[in-house]
Design a protein that fits this description.
- With 148 residues, the protein is of the alpha+beta class.
- The protein is 47% helix and 18% strand.
């Protein structure tokens, strides 16, 4: 009987330790996700774009890509850069530099879109095009003085 109680006691202890480990692991993962989502500290004195800025960028690009084969897929922020993503059905048959110039001249918002550029202020706006995966995108940094 003592052997049976001893075995049962070990199993209960192991189960308790396992449950505690899973609970702590879940807490750490929850905290890590929270830290990433809400960490908006300045990097080298640069304040990242606000949620309102991202919403404005999304609305400007969304309006431009309602019809046609090119689809605006949203924007994200990384440090002081807003990345706007556009999915295209197939690769453009241009050199990399020609694609970047095309993005700057034809896709980037013009300087006349004053509300957008005033909202962006010191941040950068990068326009990305890709076919299947965002990580293989071609991009250009928009400059509000290029297009008028």
């Amino acid at each position: 009987m003592s052997k049976r109680i001893n075995t049962l006691s070990r199993k209960v202890t192991m189960l308790t330790v396992t449950l505690v480990m899973f609970t702590l692991s879940g807490c750490m993962q929850g905290n890590a996700a929270t830290d990433i989502e809400y960490t908006f500290v300045t990097v080298d004195g640069i304040i990242p774009p606000s949620d309102n800025t991202i919403k404005l960028v999304n609305s400007v690009f969304y309006k431009n890509f309602i019809g046609g084969d090119w689809r605006f897929k949203g924007s994200t922020r990384v440090n002081d850069t807003i990345n706007a993503y556009i999915q295209i059905p197939q690769q453009l048959e241009m050199s990399q530099s020609a694609q970047e110039n095309y993005l700057k001249m034809a896709i980037c918002p013009s300087a006349q879109n004053k509300a957008l550029w005033d909202e962006i202020k010191g941040s950068k706006l990068a326009v990305h095009i890709y076919t299947h995966k965002r990580k293989y995108s071609t991009f250009a940094i928009c400059d509000n003085s290029v297009r008028t």
